[in-house]
Design brief:
heterodimer; A: 402 residues; alpha+beta; Heat Shock Protein 90; 3 domains; 5 strands; 67% helix; elongated; B: alpha/beta; Arc Repressor Mutant, subunit A; 2 domains
């Protein structure tokens, strides 16, 4: 296949991108080489000095990326010296030969581009002004030398110089713009990546915490609760034995200990159930059935969820329902409540409706506010519609997985 | 079922060793004959098949899933050996599970909170009632049902006092016990009970059986 010129150009660009320092070195060498003809002057000392000046100007290209402003400043100062001393001075003094302008001065255009591409616009605009001023001065100082030429040619030279300078600035500036755009894209990509990572971590944390709560409940059930029940049983037996034969004081002590053990058992049970209702292990549906059957006000449940959510989500939905039922019973004056759970896209939606007085509000730190915060930890949503006079509808939307 | 005088023969299924052993010792000291104490539902079935006890005391949560193995085992025992009483005990009360248990096996069944072992005499009383084909329902179930405010139409016709009496019937209490609890005379209790049976449309037949049916209506309402 014929090598396509565009592809070859791309290869060149790629090489330049990979070896920026070498590319700049090459450019500087080319600039100096281009000046070779203009540097063949006598005496040799002047040629040497002129070569040194041109080399210095060309060298600024090599360091342009490291410090664009300093590189530009050095090149501009040298070029200004050339303008002032190297061209035919206005007062008729002979020009300093070592400071004659050379092709290497084209470096300034490259440096202006660099300035526009890598530095804030106000800096590059100052550079642009310096360059345009320099060009104008150059053309003006040239004019007497080339008096033979028509003014039109000078105008063309000036316009060409100005256009080149402007083009370099525009190219650099658009380069800066594009780079900012790509950087923005990359930033957004990085943010998206980070967000995804955080979501995964959060899901793991939510799942782990739900699993840990379940484990704690099970440990309580298999450990402390059983031991305490066995202890209470022994105390009960001691108490009953003392009732048959024993002194009243010991009986009273045993009775108090027995009662304490039973009360603690009841408290521990409530605590464990608050940590993780064991019925949740059988699924959200069965858990809600039991919740509805023990509700303070008559509750009806419709459950059409087809795919079980993760345990953490089931627990969250359950605790929301429990809180909402308790709220309805406590505050709404409702005579009945309806709980509905169904699939919704990649998640589920649960609505709790009561026929109470309405006027419920979402206040930070309040019961509903707490639910909202809880639901938001998994990007769920909570909606409240509670006009004065009711009915109150609370809608909880949850993903199927954290 | 047990005959009067002979020691009740009991099988215990409880996965926590400390509770299993404690229960075995306590019941033994109280004159019950613990013929087997096992740790899971499979072993329970084997023990019941082998010993045909008067009562099986069954923990709801047992290996392997620790959810409702005990309930399922209780139902299976009732289907296979209806003469064996089953007393299910659980760390938590689930009215739904209780209602199901009672609907399938109206006699020789009990459902108690695990805490009840603390009152040894009452617990043994409950075991005895279940062994004799009676029903025992944890007061906590009744409390939850009462607070649930989910009375259906079935019970709408009952007066508050009659509901109170019915809730005690559902707990397996005798008329005398109900009279003592409500501070009313046994005669008044009998009047309430007759009125409840009447309103629930239960024909006059075996009183105990009607009590059980009334209790089930109550649970299912």
């Amino acid at each position: 296949m014929e090598p396509y010129a565009g592809i070859m150009l791309q290869d060149v660009y790629a090489w330049v991108r990979r070896h920026p320092r070498a590319a700049d070195g090459l450019l500087a060498a080319l600039l100096l080489a281009g000046s070779a003809g203009q540097l063949r002057i006598s005496p040799p000392s002047a040629a040497l000095a002129a070569t040194a000046v041109s080399a210095l100007i060309a060298a600024t290209v090599v360091v342009r990326r490291r410090d664009p402003v300093a590189a530009f400043a050095v090149a501009a100062l040298l070029a200004a010296a050339q303008l002032v001393f190297g061209l035919q001075p206005a007062d008729g003094d002979p020009p300093v030969r070592a400071l004659g302008p050379t092709i290497a001065d084209a470096a300034i255009v490259v440096l202006l581009y660099t300035l526009a591409a890598y530095r804030p616009r106000r800096v590059s605009l100052a550079g642009l002004a310096v360059c345009l001023l320099g060009a104008a001065v150059a053309v003006a100082r040239w004019a007497p030398v080339h008096a033979a030429h028509s003014g039109g040619l000078l105008l063309v030279a000036g316009a060409g110089l100005g256009a080149t300078i402007l083009t370099a600035w525009v190219l650099g500036d658009s380069m800066a713009y594009r780079r900012a755009y790509y950087t923005g894209l990359e930033d957004r990509l990085a943010v998206a990546e980070r967000t995804r990572e955080l979501q995964e971590r959060r899901a793991r944390a939510v799942d782990e915490s739900a699993a840990r709560l379940r484990r704690i409940e099970r440990d309580l059930h298999d450990g402390a609760q059983v031991r305490l029940a066995a202890l209470a049983m022994t105390l009960g037996e001691i108490k009953e034995n003392l009732e048959v034969a024993g002194d009243d004081r010991t009986l009273a002590l045993a009775g108090a200990a027995h009662q304490n053990a039973k009360d603690t058992l009841a408290e521990l049970r409530d605590l464990a159930r608050g940590i993780h209702p064991p019925v949740l292990d059988r699924g959200l549906g069965p858990a809600l059935v039991i919740l509805a059957s023990t509700s303070g006000i008559p509750a009806r449940l419709t459950d059409s969820v087809t795919e079980r959510p993760s345990p953490a989500i089931e627990a969250m939905a359950y605790f929301c329902a429990a809180e909402l039922l308790a709220n309805a019973a406590k505050h709404s004056g409702a005579s009945r409540v309806t709980i509905g759970v169904c699939d919704q896209g990649a998640g589920l939606v649960m609505s709790v409706t009561d026929d109470g007085d309405g006027g419920a509000r979402l206040v930070p730190g309040g019961g509903l506010g707490g639910l909202l915060e809880r639901v938001q930890t998994v990007d769920g949503r909570l909606g409240l519609d509670s006009p004065p006079g009711g009915p109150t509808v609370v809608t909880v939307e949850l993903p199927r997985h954290a | 079922m047990s005959t009067a005088g002979a020691a009740l023969r009991v099988v215990i299924a409880e996965d926590a060793a400390i509770m299993r052993d404690g229960l075995t010792q306590t019941l033994t000291r109280r004159g019950l004959d613990v013929v087997s104490a096992v740790a899971d539902a499979e072993a329970l079935r084997e023990a019941v098949e082998k010993h045909r006890p008067d009562v099986a005391i069954v923990d709801v949560r047992m290996p392997p899933t620790h959810t409702d193995e005990g309930l399922r085992a209780a139902r299976a025992i009732h289907e296979q050996w209806p003469e064996v009483g089953v007393l299910v005990f659980s760390q938590y009360i689930e009215t739904q599970a209780a209602a199901e248990l009672f609907a399938r096996a109206p006699g020789g069944v009990g459902y108690l909170l695990k805490d009840r072992v603390a009152d040894v005499s009452e617990f043994i009383d409950a075991i005895t009632r279940v062994a004799q084909g009676g029903t025992v329902l944890d007061p906590e179930v009744v409390r939850q049902l009462l607070s649930a405010g989910r009375r259906g139409d079935t019970l709408a016709a009952l007066t508050p006092r009659e509901r109170e009496v019915l809730s005690l019937i559902a707990q397996g209490r005798s008329n005398a016990a109900i009279a003592g609890t409500l501070f009313i005379s046994p005669k008044v209790v009998e009047k309430h009970v007759a009125s409840i049976f009447d309103k629930l449309g239960l024909p006059p037949s075996d009183t105990d059986n009607r009590r059980v049916i009334a209790a089930i209506r109550y649970l299912e309402s």
